[in-house]
Every structure is written in structure tokens, then in C-alpha cells.
Amino acid sequence: MAQHLTGVPGAKPQGWRVHHTVKFGLALSLGLIVLGVLMGRGTLIALATPLLIGALWSLTEHSKAQPTMRTEPVIADGADARTVGMRVLSETSDCPGVTLARVKVSFAGTKSRDLLLPINDDVPLEFSITSVRTGKRDLFGVSAVALARTAGLIGPQVEPASQQIVVLPRVEPLPALPVSATVRGLTGPRQSRRMGDGQEFRDVSLMRPGDRLRQIDWFITARNAPDLEHLYVRRNLAQAEATAMILVDSRDDVGSEVAFWGSAHEGRPDQMTSLDIARTAAASLAKASLDAGDRVGFEDLGRPRRPVLPGTGKRHLERIRYSLALAQPLGAPKVRTRAPFVPSGALVYVLSTFLDETALATVASLVRSGHRVIAIDTLPTISTWSLTQRQMLAWRLTSLDRQTQLQLTRNLGVTLVRWSDPQHQQQLAVLTATPGDRVVAGPGGTRP
Fold it and tell me: Has this prediction a pTM greater than 0.90?
């Protein structure tokens, strides 16, 4: 993923230019010489001569070759955030007269900085910033100019093309999650209510056609039928698997500062937006469900693309995390006319800011279909410190409408969890401790 800094794409090649300090030195020395001649003062001429010689000498020390540099992205995981960095290395081996390159580094939401990179040296220039943002992120803006040995001449400015990286969402450890209302299949980590070959004991009964010999309980048979007139077998409950679907509303990506909503402001790298919170929450829910042996699927409600079908395993988790990282707003928010694809009886997590009625309509459709739905509020903690009076009024109206959407969601019997609340893990634990009625679906259909 390395890129070379060899020139601005499509720009006309530029030559070396004189530094403004050299221009000032030439003008000052020539002015002193002229002034010394007019005034007949030899001291002024003697003072200006070394300055003139130094300025002229600095114009001759440069190379016709242009130094080339290479950029490499660097990502490191931390305890609470990721360190996103870039390494700039010099690749020029024959560039006489050039010893340094001035590199200007900028990052969205921060001030730009000027750094020096040695030319013809193996020492790289590394810079990084700690960020909690996820998804497609633009790397540092880098531009470089070569400096002649005497620093009197400056080479042409070179810039790489815009470079992006995909930052996968972090996974937060969660307690045991609720189980879907329906468990299906003949294998899996969940306990069903029908008879099968599981590990959980159900009852003891007379042997019937279809029972296996290894199911015979000889102790109970010897006690109840000493003459072996009847055989008694132990019957166990069958194992099954549960399914969870994660639906993320990517139409909104707003930060904690309301004043910057709808603007081109990129946001601070140390503040998570609503979509960053949604990605982290979805990845954490997927990881906890997969660790419990459930099948997990994912769908982006904001973009019409193929969903990630329910699956299991570590590779499936990475597939979900990558799909979450690609979820982002695309143009104006669109109203979804069709309900998302959800397997029958699956537990559904809907992650949204609930700033409009679209998420509520999706939740209502899922509830009418008989699914158990858990709504995750992904709006970050709001700050209104720089709002004007009109902006504050607009935010109050938006907040009232949002509270209405949340209350209507609760009225549907849906549990609402605010992820920015420090107690969200305890809320999920309460849901696990008080599960709803489960329905077991076997090969012959669905029964209580």
C-alpha cells in the first residue's frame, strides 16, 4: 500500500526556485554596495561582499535530479483507540547537493506541521495520531520539497495521490447476550425443547421403536423390570442453533457537536460519530453472538447492497467487520420501501440514531413479522456549546421528534439500549437474565 512522492499527477514539471532568504540576501548586499559607492564608504562594500558571495554560491549547489520518497501507512491497536500513522522514506541514492526535504504533514481536524526528512539516508520519518474513528479514512496529507545543501534553492513541491485506509471497528467484550425466540436445526450450542441427542436430560421412558441401544438405562431397567420384560431408555433434549441479524442504519453520521451537523467539518479524531459507535456496537454484538455459537448476519439499511448472510466462525466475523467499515452515508438519506431480509425467528438488532421515522418503520415491520427486536441507540453524547439561538431552537425540535420516535419504539415492546450510556452492558445482561418465551422449530415445523 506504499505510494511514491515523485510529483503532482498531471502537473507541469517545475524546476528549482530561489529561497526568499537568498533573494533578500542578494537585494541587501547589492543595496549596500550601491549605497557604499554613492556615499564613498568602503566599509559598506566590505560588509556586503561576503553576503553577496554567499548568496551567489548558494545558487550553484543543487542537483538536477529530483529526490523520490515513499509513503507507507501504519496502524497500531491501543487500549481505547487506534494509532494511525505514516512512514516516509527516501528512495534516492544519487542526488548530489540535496541533503534534506521539508515535509508538510496535515490531518483532518488538526494543525499542519513541518518536518525534515534526510535524503540518501536509511532513517525514515514517522508520524502518527491517535484516533477512535473507523471506516474509510483519509491518511495524512503529505507534501514535500527538496532543499539544496546550502538551503538557497528549493525543489518543486511533490504530493502523493489521495490515499485511504479501511479501519476496522474495534470489538468490545460483552456479557452473554439474549437468545433468539426460535432455535432451529439438529445441532448447535443451544438447548431446544424437543427430544434428540443432546447432553441435557429430559426423562426416562419405555423403549420404543427408533430408540438406540446405547440409550438403555440398565439401572432403572433392573429396578423396574427385573425380568427384563421392558427396557427403559434415557431421553435427552436436542441441540439447536440460534440466529441473530444486525441491521445498521448508515444514513446518518453525526458527531457529538450539533453545530457541525450537515457541514463539511470532518470532526475531531478523538471523538466517535454515531456511525463509529454503530460499527463498534455491531462488531461487539457479532463477536459475542459468534462466540456463543450462534449464526450472525449483517445488512446495511442505508445502502441497497447484498447482505452478509448468517454464518459462523472467525472468518465470518472479519467479513462482518469489513462490511461495517464500508458502511457510510451515500448521498441524501433514502427511504427504505422493503423490509430487510431476516430469517424466520431470528433475534434482530437495529442500530440507528432514530433521527427520523425510517428506523421506527423498520422496527415495526420486524415486530409485526414476529421477530424479537432489540434497538440500539447510537447517537453520541450531545454538546450544544457553540449553538446560536436559532440553532438551539432547531436542535430542540429535532430532539423532541427523536424522543417521540424512541417512545413509539418502546410502545412496540422493543427494548431500547443507548450504547453511549456507560451502563449499556448491564442493560444487555438484564435482557439475558429475563428472556422471552422461546419457540422451538424442528424438522416437522414449529411448536411451543
Answer: no
